[in-house]
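Ticket #4471: structure output looks truncated?

Reporter: J.K.
Steps to reproduce: submitted the chain below (505 residues) through the standard prediction queue, then opened the result file.
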Amino acid sequence: MKSKFHTIVKRLTVVTFILLMSVSVFATGTLETGSAVPSSGSTYKGNSAKYVFLFIGDGMATPQINAAESFANARKSDDVAIEHLRFAQFPVVGLTTTYDAGSLITDSASAGTAIASGHKTLSGVINMDVSKSTAYKTIAEYAKEMGKKVGIVSSVSIDHATPACFYAKVPSRGNMYDIAVQLTESGFDYFGGGGFAQPTGKNKDQEDVISLARKAGYTYVNSPEEFRALKGGTQKVLAVNSYLQNSSAMPYDIDRKEGDLSLADYTAKGIELLSDDPDGFFMMVEAGKIDWAGHANDAAASIGDTLAFDEAITKAVDFAEKHPEETLIVVTGDHETGGMTIGFAGTKYSTFFDEIAEQKMSFTAFNQEILAPYKEEMSANIEDAQLADLLPVIEDAFGLDYDALSEVQRNELEIAFDRSMGNEMITPRIEDVYLLYGGYEPLTVKITQIVNQIAGIGWTSYSHTGVPVATFAKGVGQELFLGYYDNTDIFDKMALAMGIDTISD
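Returned output as attached by the reporter:
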């Protein structure tokens, strides 16, 4: 009894401390204004962080984390439990709001700007104010000015919104060639992961970005062999994955083949290349396709990339254990995507995450490898196309037994198949089609939706949602990240932990 009593008292003491810290941080924060004033003021008196990791799970809020943890447990046990991800065990957790200057629901450009520069802006705008006339300095640029090396890694194209927010300033995230040019001019030391969406401009009439990067002194590698051969001391590196699945992005982890590089590989290589600097480094790593999977309502792809994200974070944790008094690791999401829920009306209070394990490929891989070739094969005789042709491969790829489905589910698949093949009998209103399939291939998204529903996972949107995200911290200055605060405060808290004076700018 004495031991149990002492345990309860200890837990109450910890909870009381966290609540007090949360109130303190919230009271001094910038939740209402979203301004770039350090939210913890002079409360941080600790040592400055020499090595700083910022991990951003694009589209990752607590449902995505919870789903990955539930799946991780279901792979090993039938018990009702979760297996905590490595970053979910960090000693400090905060809750972060994500609204931007024009909407309660942000996009990745305005969210990335808030995190990278501490300022609110409009959706689609990267590191510029709402008038698109004033540019903001990013935390990565501050770090570079301090003499630190800087690395930017992403599983999506490196000129996409989130990575761009750390080195570029453009009025529209769609100006991807301009963003890529600014990458080559940034002077940052390491870029890794995805490629370029517009390597020669929108009209394909500009000088190739790779050529510009080489002229700027970057060593460009595009194969696993060249990548693994990179050693510390290499001046500036641009490493693009050899296999880009779609939109110049790395493949979903569920689709990654043996020998393919992972987000963890790009993170580990970044540590190797950046850690030889006496002033330390700043590295941002984005798991961008958690978001893409959420847009398409593909839980298996989302979970796979969340687990891969955790593996990348583990590389930073391993490094931090060797430099515990000098390293800060921050993990957050920029917003939630898809309105993911653990719970579906059809399964009530039950979940069946083992069903997710039956899925062997993402919606993208199914479209590219199965559905597109079938549509091409049947294009001349579209009236002969029938869902039965694809049922064996659907069962193999998704674990979906057509005969075991309800009549409603079978009908939904038949209708979706007809719409994918373009031979539907009824032409619905366009907005109705969007509500059903979100602009994705009807058959594929309906397959993943049914798999998710059987597992007990629901979705409310094909877009982002406005719910807060969780922020985790470990290491030097970790206490700054307690509480309930705005995404702009992440910039301020990192600046404080790094000893950066942003006020004089």
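Triage note (M.O.): checked the attachment and the full token line is present. The chain has two domains: 10-339+465-498, 342-458.
Status: closed, working as intended.
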